[in-house]
Amino acid sequence: MKGPSRRLFLQFSGLAVLLTACAPRTGTGAGVEELTALGRRWREVTLGAGLFDPAREPYRARLARLGAAARLHRDAMTLTGRSLWPDLPFPSLGATPSRLRAMARAYALPGTGLTAEPGLGSAVATGIEHYVRHVYAADARQTGNWWDWQIGAPRALLDAAVLAGPHLTGGRNAALCEAVDNFVPPDRLDDYAGNSTGANRVDLCTVTLLRAIAGADPGRAALAVSALSPVFRYVTEGDGFYRDGSFIQHGSVPYQGGYGAVALTGLATLAAVLRGTPWEIADPAFHNVLDAVDRSFAPFVHDGACLDLVRGRGVARRPYGDHARGREIAAAILLLAETAPAADRARWRGMVKGWAARDTAKPMLRAAEGDPAFHARLAAVLRDETTPAAPEPSGHRLFPMSARAVHRRPGWCAALSMASSRVARYEHGNGENPRGWHTGAGMLYWWGGGDQYSDSFWPTVDPYRLPGTTVSTLRLPDGAGGAWGDTRPPADWVGGVTDGAYAAVGQHLYGLESALEAFKSWFFLDDAVVCLGAGITSRDGVPVETVVDNRRTGAALTVDAVAGRAHLDGHGGYVLPPGQPLRTLRETRTAGGASRSYATIWLDHGVDPDAAGYVYHLMPGANLAATRARAADPGWARVLANTSAQQGIAVTSLGITAACFWAGGRAGDLAASDPCAVLVRDLGDGTATVTVADPRCVLDGLTVTWDHPVAGIVNPHPLLASARTGARLTLVFGRLADRAGASHTVTVRLA
């Protein structure tokens, strides 16, 4: 691979000139050498300098296109009091700074045809100077979205300034520093609150670090690093990372696939840039960020795509946005791996390699060509024969603090999005996702191969018939409920219990701007999800429906209501009690220039139902024969209870008995003193596990009884206060209230 050009050497030798020009008036130049090195490191990390050969494809063509675009921008630049380019009128807070940064990237990257070209560097400097004078000025007033002024514009401008450093000398750079100080002063990082939390805090710290590099300010660099520390700490409410793997932004929106990805990318970048410098991240709590890769992000990436239930309003932006976010997460993980312990590094590289191998809809390596640094890192992993591609994991992950669940089995994956007193029904804002009303009403996503939700699903699907949901068909206005996730229902019992392989998950459902109330439970098993609904009541004067499924497909749908089954060719099967009314619809829906075919299956509970209910099994990937066989075996999953007090099932072949207790009482062989979730599994080796959880997070104590002979306790839990064995097992647990809805397991020896 070719080394850096002489022009690049001169460029970054000249960076000290830029730093000195904007040094604090009281400074003595101390720290300039380290900050110059930090600027070089910023370029190396963010541009991938040294990772790829610019003369080889696909880099050669991509870099040439970047250079050609930069040349056009340079030649079209027309300085007026209203704009830099005629096609980007004032104030253009996003597009103009981004265009200047793109030009600076062409200046800094090798192989663009304009590498270290003085005319381009001068144009970037002139553009920044003009923009700071007329738009992003020290005396300008912030209007519109705060993010543009405090994060978007300053980051792009500072990034461009650092990349084109030798050309921003004297007053030009000083004016930029002064303008940034106006909108992002040091005291902006004093309080970890408001819009200075989570991903926003990481972005603000990144802006502060770039300002430190551009302004030769070691103290500000130290501030940028120290102000990151609150992001590393686990939170129990509001924005940030939770111990159960949840990540929340905007106070109530699960957001690993949006703000969370931004936070991970920013933290990975800063860790790499700061490594080996006086400002290297040394906070021990940074280990929580490393843990978040496996706990918070990996569970929500399936075959390279980030699941939509943690993408907030971003689901409505563009087709295949889930794959774009998956790539962003993969890129951040590979970068973070460079500063991680060896075991983490090896595991993460294998995981990303597996994602890339399975992402056939939008092949990851090809899609990564627009980001040379990520492409080079990914290509290296894919070439590395010592790194095996990790398969999709199998098991269940429950996130009670964000009302989310993800279940994986060989050949399929399912995910559930709910809403609670802590978690928004949906998020809309900036005109995005105004009809996401029911995504938190128990939407059950599932993948059995293919990209069901990637290709224009969101603009074309009927928003009143999202799969798995129970909804009032009352028409809602766009943006019903508050914006930015201010749509939380009053439900406290939302969550469930899992032993890591299986799960019982429940939601006390309240309709959005509706009188609807219901109790919904999902039991996640090996080849099926058993879905129960009870207490479905409404007074809206319109029908209430439970959407068994709504698949974006033109595949053949066969229904046999007498036998209690339906099958969607190439997708899966559905089993219902014989004679349970089942409605179907085949339609083509068009929106935003896209037309897509849908097969919809739903249960009609009628107008203003009173304590209606349902039972059905979803069998992802099942063929017609398997669906028929399950329908012919009604005792495979026995319903122990399906009321507004308890919902439970028993599956003898799996040794499973599980229940969601909305109130204390009994469900088959299980009884509980208080509302809770319980999952018992006979392991087939003479032992069984009893797993309990307190989804409401309020219990000072809980007594669970299992009517089954038990000889003794094998593995007690620290929260287990007492136990009685014999013909019946009685477990008395201590305080569960402060356990954030987590699951707790006791292992017993069967008699």
UniProtKB/TrEMBL annotation:
Molecular functions (GO terms): lyase activity
Residues of the Polysaccharide lyase family 8 central domain: 396-622
Residue span, Polysaccharide lyase family 8 C-terminal domain: 638-696
Gene3D superfamilies per UniProt: 2.70.98.10, Chondroitin AC/alginate lyase, Polysaccharide lyase family 8-like, C-terminal
Polysaccharide lyase 8 N-terminal alpha-helical domain segment(s): 42-353
Superkingdom of source: Bacteria
Coiled coil location: none
PROSITE patterns in UniProt: PROKAR_LIPOPROTEIN, TAT
Keywords for this protein: Lyase, Signal
UniProt family annotation: Belongs to the polysaccharide lyase 8 family.
Protein name per UniProt: Lyase
Taxonomic lineage: Bacteria, Bacillati, Actinomycetota, Actinomycetes, Streptosporangiales
